Amino acid sequence: MIEVLRRMKERNTPNEPEFQPFDISNVENDIADIVRHTAYAPPAVRQALVPLPSYVQHAESADEISKLTAHAVISQYEECAKAIEQMREPLKAWAEGHQNALNDLHAAMKYVDEAAQYCRDLGAGTFERFQKSADVIAQVRRTCDELRAKIEPED
Predict the structure, then answer these.
(1) What is the pLDDT of residue 34?
(2) Given CA atoms 119, 122, 128, 129 in this order, what sign does their dihedral have?
(3) Residues 59 and 110 in one domain
(4) Is the pTM of this model over 0.85?
(5) Is 46 a domain residue?
(6) pLDDT (tens digit, 9 = 90+) per residue, 22-48?
(7) Quick check: is 72 in a domain?
């Protein structure tokens, strides 16, 4: 509206008074003149509407304005949902990193379990050697006592 008034003012000649009464009969011409000199895209050149998401449908009873408004609103919600879905990627990478760490942890725990079993096996082997050597020592001690008894006179 300010543009209309400005153009109307430009049409005034210096001899005419600066303000003229509002003439309703020229409003259409003034608006058409402004529209012709304004850079805007005609309907055929305007950006096409983004297709509706599959989870919504226009009601058959809705008029064009309601459909356009609903379309604009659902487009904003859909953009928001896509932005939220993009937050999934860093979480997925984080989870994969943690899964790798868990796998490494499980491998380390398995190594610890194997090392503990190896230590037990070594201990059991050493235990068996001591048992066998104790038997051998007892046998050597008996043999020594028998020989000592044969060599030394009885009192």
Answers:
(1) 76
(2) negative
(3) no
(4) no
(5) no
(6) 677 777 777 777 777 766 656 665 566
(7) yes
